[in-house]
Design brief:
335 residues; alpha/beta; 8 helices; globular
Length: 335
């Protein structure tokens, strides 16, 4: 433990959690994939037991109410009924790096980049909706710390229109959520883990935030304004995370939504896909991201289903995407 722990922070929404089925002999179960189809041989030892990587720590935390709950704090292995992308990510990084590795997941389900995960510095803006009858309506979309997520615009005041004085639920009680609340919680929880690094990586005294991994976009599909602004918000997110963790050169890897192919990228799904591809350091349009941001096209890695159905719980999807994200991270680290 003389070397600092290389920490890779995973964020997003529910598909970053453990959704792949482990047990059973049915298609899509990890046990069948490994034992019958002979996939992912590194997951089992010569005796057929699940391998345990003593060089990769698997940590998963999530905000519940006012508290941080710890769901994983162990060496990378297969345990329990479900797996997530951290298995593939951790194996790739563990093989590639001499330093100790921690995959630190701080996320929760059903969160949008345009609202719950909106990064600091994001400003409110005016968005014009057109309904099926062709009627146009202007709304102000929330900036960081604003609430609610959008409100009616005053054409005379435009973007500067302030939000309502109160945001109440159906029972008249104040709603305490705001734009960026989940971002704040996830960042705070990741920092709590790092502040007590030896509690999560035994005997560790030093760490370095070495990279960020992002798999998200499902919730933004259901809001036209959020889908349209996905690229802008994603650029802000990359910069904000690097600033939060004092890691200006840390690689950033993200995955597209598995059901969206290059051929069917239309509507809100298409806007999100275009935003995700735009930040790629090789084929995208941001020179500052060259060599340090990578977008993984996950459609060929997905075994069916869609993000809103957790890809039918197919463990091969979560393994394939995790391995793809891990491989992309290793390539950026080598650069």
């Amino acid at each position: 433990m003389s070397k600092p722990v290389k920490v890779f922070i995973v964020m997003g929404q529910s598909n970053t959690l453990e959704m792949g089925v482990v047990k059973g002999d049915k298609d899509g179960a990890l046990e069948k994939a490994v034992k019958t189809e002979k996939l992912y041989p590194f997951l089992v030892d010569d005796a057929g037991a699940w391998t345990v990587r003593k060089d990769v720590r698997n940590v998963s935390v999530m905000q519940k109410g006012d508290n941080m709950n710890v769901y994983r704090n162990d060496w990378l292995t297969i345990s329990g009924n479900k797996i997530g992308i951290e298995i593939g990510i951790g194996h790739h990084l563990g093989q590639a790096l001499d330093e100790p590795v921690m995959v630190l997941k701080s996320s929760i389900g059903n969160r949008g980049l345009g609202w719950d995960l909106l990064p600091p510095g994001s400003e409110r803006y005016l968005y014009e909706f057109t309904d099926k009858a062709g009627v146009k309506t202007s709304k102000v979309v929330a900036g960081y710390k604003d609430k609610p997520d959008m409100w009616d615009a005053d054409p005379a005041k435009g973007v500067a229109t302030p939000p309502p004085a109160e945001w109440l639920d159906k029972k008249g009680k104040p709603i305490n959520w705001y734009a960026g609340k989940q971002y704040d919680d996830d960042i705070a929880n990741a920092k709590k883990v790092l502040a007590e690094i030896s509690k999560y990586y035994p005997e560790a005294t030093k760490f370095e935030v070495a990279g960020f991994i992002w798999w998200q976009g499902d919730k933004d599909r259901y809001n036209e304004a959020h889908a349209t602004s996905y690229e802008k918000n994603l650029v802000s997110l990359i910069k904000a995370l690097r600033k939060e963790f004092n890691a200006p050169n840390a690689p950033f890897v993200l995955g597209t939504l598995g059901q969206t192919s290059k051929e069917n990228a239309t509507g809100n799904d298409g806007k999100i896909f275009e935003g995700q591809m735009a930040v790629d350091g090789n084929s995208g349009k941001y020179p500052d991201f060259k060599g340090n941001v990578s977008t993984v096209y996950t459609n060929p890695l997905s075994m069916g289903g869609a993000s809103n159905g957790h890809y039918n719980g197919n463990a091969k999807t979560y393994m394939n995407v995790g391995l793809g994200l891990g491989e992309a991270m290793v390539k950026l680290l080598k650069k």
